[in-house]
Design goal:
about 270 residues; rod-shaped; 8 helices; four-stranded mixed beta sheet; alpha+beta
Amino acid sequence: MSYTPRHARQSKTSRFAHRAGSLLTGVGIAAALVAAPATAQAAPALPSAASSNSPFLQQAEKNLQAASMMVATNARNAVWDARNALRAQATAIARGNKTQEKQLHDGIDALVEAIAPGLIAERTPKPKPKPAPKPAPKPAPKPAPAAKPAPKAQPGGCAKTARACVDIKNQRTWLQRDGKITYGPVRMSSGKPGQETPKGFHYVNRKVKDEISYEFNNAPMPFATYFTNNGIAFHQGDPSVKSAGCIRMYRNDAQTYFNSLQIGDQVHVF
């Protein structure tokens, strides 16, 4: 005859099974599912490993089977509610043991997947996709280079070989090089009737900075640049008054001609 001590301790396995069974018995959702009207449809086969490893998962299997046998319109909802209730119980049983909690949760989810395939993925909120990184702002376009000033149009009538041009008709003169204007046109006055400035091609032959006119009572002719052999020159004077043949110019213009023209440079009067 065997004797069992009245106050003998239960093994850890027995205590776990007893606690799991007690918790599962007290879950309202499980009772509701078991009491729900079932269809004649046979329950789907469940993973053998999940249904045989622990008393908790064995009871979970029964509850989930009951949920799956409800009418079609409510079955997936019932299974989902049962799954959440069972996972909450598993967390309580594990008492902070994350390894044990994960084993129970994985076992419950394996049963749910067998009973209602795709339910967990269907009901689990999907993480919001991270917004695509904004493209780096495009660098500001480089400012367009400043347009070069268009070359001044060359007034007609002056030869490209000339270094200085004198337009008698329009009373203007300019300097140029290879046909491109480098200074002017500027205002001038040429010889009056009877003392006209000679037209044609001439050449600079001498320059006198502080010149005077002996012929006209020592009249000042600053910055005189002679281009004929009979005393015709560019020089400072009033361009609103006709001359005795010279080309009168404002002081700055006469000084520019004096500094720019060299002996031998061609002057074209037309």
